[in-house]
Amino acid sequence: MTHTALRALLGVALLAPSFVLVPTAADAKLSTAEVRMAKTVDAEYERSVALLQKLVDQNSGTMNFAGVDLVGRMMRAELEPLGFTVEWKPQTAANRAGHLIATKKGRAGAKKLLLIGHLDTVFEKDSPFQKFTRKGEEAEGPGAGDDKGGMVVMLAALRAMQAAGTLKDAEVEIMLSGDEEDAGDPIEVARADLIAAGKRADVALDFEGLSIEDGKDMGSIARRSSNSWTITTTGKTGHSSLIFSSEYGDGAINEMTRILAAFRKELPEPNLTFNTGIIAGGSSAALDADAVRATAAGKGNIIPQTAVARGDFRTLSPEQTDRVRAKMQAIVAAHAPGTDAKISFDPGSYPAMAPTPGNKALLDALNAVNKDMGLEPMAALDPLKRGAGDISFVASDVDGLVGLGTSSRGDHAPGETVDLDSIRRQAKRAAILMTRLSAAK
């Protein structure tokens, strides 16, 4: 669905008092069904925490295919009793475990909700950080926040809707990828099912973690792209006393230095970051097959023949991505004397999720829920403060909202800690929001 179409779905007067889903009286309260949803989330809180512990204690590092499959089975066991048809889609062609796709029909004409999460974590089987440890209303564990906490919020919201009688009318598709933390290759294969689901959907809701800033919950309506690049420079090798001569030129390392210095000077613009993550140079230099390690050989009295560097850049729109890529290519092409250089861009980049009016409309709808729950409104998070994610693959087809999962800190590192109490408010928000969106004409 286009952004314009979503605004029509939500009502062109979304911010006006007449918006159908937003009570207008100053003392607006939750409906009877919404109160029931909130009570159900509270009543099932310990059940949700117990499920989170079960999910966390099963390792599902991206490359632990058996572990990812087992977490998928656990989620299937929760979703089927809610009326979902669940399918496991193997991803052998992308060298990954697979994805879990669950669908449920709703009333005729109901808006299609796409719920996004992921089964895998960054913690592989050899990580020393493996178990869930509860400490009052917090818990440590691999993936406790990212994204097993998010999946628990999703399930708690759906169970609350079922208890209140609103789930039966909702048209829902759930996409739980098995490789969000390390996408399979080729990415066109690894994300084909997600992209197809986005084209079917009217709204996309991403259950990755809730962002908090200065103690306040934030709404996320944008995510930047993630684009990887590799530069290889070459020069004419010889005795170091001949460097910079007309015959031998600047050498490969100086050419690489010129390029990276020009990036720093010429690329900066709003919402862009760029980084060089690994570099090597000398008489010989090369990256390994995974491009995470480098080898090099050389001596101080030899002009370096080869240098290689790899990094990324992140943008807020496809147009910005194209513009930055063209600038980088032009900088690389302006070779220093006696050198050559080439830049390549990985085909498996994550696209940007731009902050569209439709995404803002969804945040406004969520803030209407917050108002009726007695919670503070959520401002839009600066996209510089959030990384890339799966929802970006559907952002060109459907408007979306990010951050419906749990609040956590220290994600992707030993000691990752989830705020268990955030399950309550996030599941209530999600259940009420999904119910209201499903009821919209």
Explain what this protein looks like in three dimensions:
- This protein folds into 2 domains: 310 residues, 3-Layer(aba) Sandwich (Aminopeptidase), CATH 3.40.630; 119 residues, 2-Layer Sandwich (Alpha-Beta Plaits).
- A 6-stranded mixed β-sheet has the order 1-2-6-3-7-17, sandwiched between helices. The chain has a 4-stranded antiparallel β-sheet with strand order 4-5-19-18, with no helix packed on it. It has a 4-stranded antiparallel β-sheet with strand order 11-14-10-15, covered by helices on one side.
- The N terminus is likely disordered.
- It is elongated.
- 33% of the residues lie in helices and 23% in strands.
- Helix 5 packs across helix 11.
- 50% of the residues are buried.
- By secondary structure, the chain is of the alpha+beta class.
Concise overview:
The protein has helices at about 5-10, 30-45, 45-55, 65-80, 150-165, 185-190, 190-200, 250-265, 320-335, 355-375, 420-440; strands spanning about 85-90, 95-105, 110-120, 135, 140, 170-175, 205, 210-215, 215-220, 225-235, 275-280, 285, 295, 305-315, 340-345, 380, 400, 410, 415-420. The chain is an alpha+beta fold and about 450 residues long. The chain has 2 domains: about 5-225 and about 350-440, 3-Layer(aba) Sandwich (Aminopeptidase), CATH 3.40.630; about 225-345, 2-Layer Sandwich (Alpha-Beta Plaits), CATH 3.30.70.
